Amino acid sequence: MGITASYYIERLSLIEHPEGGYFxxxxxxxxxxxxxxxxxxxxxKRSFSTSIxxxxxxxxxxxxxxxxxxxxxxxxxxxxxxxxHTLSPKGELKTxxxxxxLAQGEQFQYVVPANHWFAAEVPGEDTFALVGCTVAxxxxxxxxxxxEREPLKIAFPAHQGIISxxxxxx
Length: 170
Fold this sequence. Notes:
The protein is mainly beta. 12% of the residues lie in helices and 39% in strands. The strands form three sheets. It has a six-stranded antiparallel β-sheet. A hairpin with a 5-residue loop joins strand 8 and strand 9. The model has no long low-confidence stretch (mean pLDDT 96).
């Protein structure tokens, strides 16, 4: 039997994330961007950049959420690809497959634009994937919004099925 999700959770000291999955911050730049030079959507200064390890399993998907910054996803390892679903402010749904199998349309990295709703899952049973997420300007929980199912379904009626499946908050 190969390496399991539990192995990475233990070895990387990952803890549960509010959106689902497990994470550990591994980098936060010491230098900061002053609030007055940031766009109005930010309240307070921000690190130049932050990065985390992020692991999702077939049981612990990443629920729809959004952040104020661009977020780069980098595939590292696992026994399944990640299906990263993004909803643009105009309502365009896009699914990106992150993984090592380029011949099957997977890619190693993708950047979710700021203020797009996004969620992630791994297909199959007993599957997992480990990625890195890099945010610039750096991540702050003040910039994080976990989607509420009904308001998101009203905002994007064409995508009610995936929204119902990948949200946790009614």
